[in-house]
Amino acid sequence: MKKVIIIGAGISGLSCAYYLTQAGYQVTVLDKGEGTTGASFINAGYLTPSHFIPLAAPGIITQGLKWMLDSSSPFYIKPRIDFDFFKWGLHFKKSATKKNVEHSIPVLKDLNLKSQVLFEDMIDALDFKFHYEKKGVLMAYTNPKSEEEEHEVAHRAIQEGLDVTCLNKEDVHQLEPVLSDNVIGGVHFKCDSHMTPNHFMVDLKKWLEKNGVTFKVNQEVIDFTTQGNTITSVITNKATYEANDFVLASGSWTTPLAKKLNLNIPIQGGKGYSMDVYRHTGITIPTILVEARSAITPMDGFTRFAGTMEFSGNNTLVRKERVEALANAVKTYYQDIEINEEERNKATSGLRPVSPDGLPFIGKTSTFKNLTIAAGHAMMGWSLGPITGKLVTQLVEDKKTSVNVNPLSPERF
User: Fold this and answer.
1) Residue 159 covered by a domain
2) Distances (CA, A) of 3 to 29, 156, 204, 205, 376
3) Whose CA, among 86, 214, 294, 324, lies 20 to 30 Å from 136?
């Protein structure tokens, strides 16, 4: 039986383990932490065919410059000397074009739709039940400028064949009565669905262990051994592991690990924040608060309030001012819903692995024949988990992929 080592125990890593195990491989997953924290556990849980516009789009630089030095803004960059971030920023600036958007739309839409189907297939395939609902995602806005921008995206989504409805103020409040009077309308992407990520991650890991996958946690990768165009082993702070194939699904830590193999894969950690409220909120529809760049999700037994984007290096420091901004946004968009001090104090953070052009890196490199990259999914990491695992398995098996992976090449920068 051929051995595969997966570096990273987030949703991409576990999805790769799931499909590789089904294909008959002996899988070992390495993770630098306990494998129980991070963006895969605290994200909004959206499966989003609606998210077909890449982060690198026209106007994002101008908007980002307005926000970047305000530590409580939806988009914050901590001033620092960081050569990797500087290079990533240049790539991002070059990618923020209409041409990149048009190139990315069909790719992201196809990946998201196929991944959503694979999640639904898991409902029947797995021997444990998990929370999955297809209520759509509501984009709720409070000013006419946002309304114009969101309607433009909605019309494009309809052209792309997605199920979308534009709602006026009366309609949006009928759909979600707990919204405040500040909300003047919304766009309902009925094509989207949602889950409870932290519950699914725990249960999927148990399933994988039961089906032969080995997990080695608290093991930080410090180096690789290679022979010609082949990786022979990975060295952690505790042991050395040999395998036939290796998968780098290491999220925001992909860039420094790739450097050990003399590979350039530019990814930056975009920190997001999350708070869970276990009391009744009355929120029934997953909703993105457009101007606040926040995502609210009614999950299995609680409501999750998540959002913001912070580039401050690979750390999990929770900035109080950003938690406060997220909590204050909730008061603006909802009536009679307030996140209390105890709930704010329990806020957590996670790093989204952000590529410069908004597309993930999924594919092999020309340098090493037995290495597959699976990282850089940004805000769509949860949504694209299963399709990533499926594509990685097809690449390891040297089979034709179900999606054209050329636009996702790890060597495109």
Assistant:
1) yes
2) 11, 44, 20, 18, 24
3) 324
Cα separation, 65 vs 262, whole angstroms: 32
327: three-class secondary structure by DSSP: helix
The CA distance from 338 to 318, in Å, is 20
pLDDT at 251: 97
Burial tier of 399 (Cβ tally within 10 Å: 0-12, 13-18, 19+): exposed
Distances (CA, A) of 47 to 157, 181, 307: 15, 28, 16
Please indicate, yes or no, if residue 289 is contained in any of the structural domains. yes
The domain tally of the chain equals 1
Distance CA 87, CA 78 (A): 16
Boundaries of domain holding 346: 54-81+133-193+268-353
CATH of the domain at 176: 3.30.9.10
The closest alpha carbon to 310, from 276, 344, 354, 266, belongs to: 354
Nearest alpha-carbon partner for 36 in 195, 238, 214, 203:
203
Contacts of 208 by beta carbon, 8 Å cutoff, 6+ apart: 14, 17, 18, 21, 27, 29, 215
Residue 92 — φ and ψ, nearest 5°?
Answer: -65, -45
Residue 62 in this model has a pLDDT that exceeds 70: no
Residue the block writes with tokens 């390891």: 396
pLDDT for the residue 223? 97
pTM above 0.85, yes or no: yes
